[in-house]
# Entry
Amino acid sequence: MNELTRRSLVRNSVLPLTGMLGLPSISAAVEQASSPYRRPKLKITEVRTAEVRVHGYQVHVRVYTDQGIVGQGETTDAAEGNVPLIRSFARMLVGQDPLNIEAAFERIRTSGIFAGAQGGQYITALTGVEIALWDIAGKALGLPVYQLLGGKVRDRVRIYCDSGAREMTPGDEGSKARIKEIQDLGFTAAKIDIDDARDPARFDRVNWTASNGEIEHMVAKVAFTRESYPKNIDLAVDMHGRYDATSGKRVAKELEPFKLLWLEEPVPPENIDAMRDIRASTSTPICCGENIFLRHGFREIFEKHAVDIVMPDFQKCGGLLEARKIADMAHTYYIPVAPHAVTSPIGMMATAHVCAAIPNFLVQEWHWIDSPELWRNWVKEGEIIQKGFITLPERAGIGVEMNDDGARKAQVPGSPWFEPAARG
Ligand code: MG
# Structure
């Protein structure tokens, strides 16, 4: 039933007419129903979820329709609390046409204005539903999602490997082995973390003013990693928004000789003036966005020229169309987009569809190097990254389908697995 094609939808809608109408009318009906402009009629019947823990906590969403087409989506990072939120959204979805994605999105977003619909978990939950609606739309119309987002400007999407969970320690054999592994996999860009809560040079457990010793350690890590990779592999560095403005400014300056791809969140993202001041003080490109939601959240960042690169998370920021809109806003400021992405192959491929469609794409994250078995067995299509790139599939919808047996290995114990919600 999942493989319902447009042709079968057309057939189903035309055949009952033959018993009721004369030949000229049948001919007109066939003509009308065969028109490429005729759209399938679908209704949403149900929304279900599953919870997993891999790189953090993710919620997978399935939206069901009366024609047997099922769409899938994924949320991450701000996913805590998404399950009851998604259940509450179902009331606004069941009975609706899933192809009117903007209408469904706005109905849910605007109904939550007093319930936190400006960002956070609310918008993350809505994101998972929105992605599932795009999967349905692609499957119903027989087109890959990128085609519905404006078509491809590139056939394949460049991926960078985030090895953040493993500290790149100068001289350490494990770190050298990890760098070699990333090179052997064919990646052309990588990212490391330099914020270290356990740094022995840290004087205070709460305040994040980096001491001289901490900054020395950060620079040493970057120097070691930069020298270990060949020059043609780009390197980005993440500070996770943990530091104050003085520290952020000092680190950005110290890292200038390494010609980084970017320095990520040297300060938290809420004070856009502080981010802009750091950007103005350094030649190191500054990047943020994984903790910002909707176009409305990004507007001031663009207007104040606070960053060189934006990195919205397409499994958090509002969905695939919202991601396209944020990217288009960025494009008017000549700012490239490098999406944050820490999800399964389903979320990664959904993100790649947008990246294929936007002109100002730079590079997309991948963060599952520590979970290779889960990664390779999550979808029926197997490995989706080849030599550091995702090639967009020609299949309808997102183009990958969950292999439940593989994905269930990461199921949150005791949580439902796409089971119907209890009816109240
Ligand atoms: Mg980050």
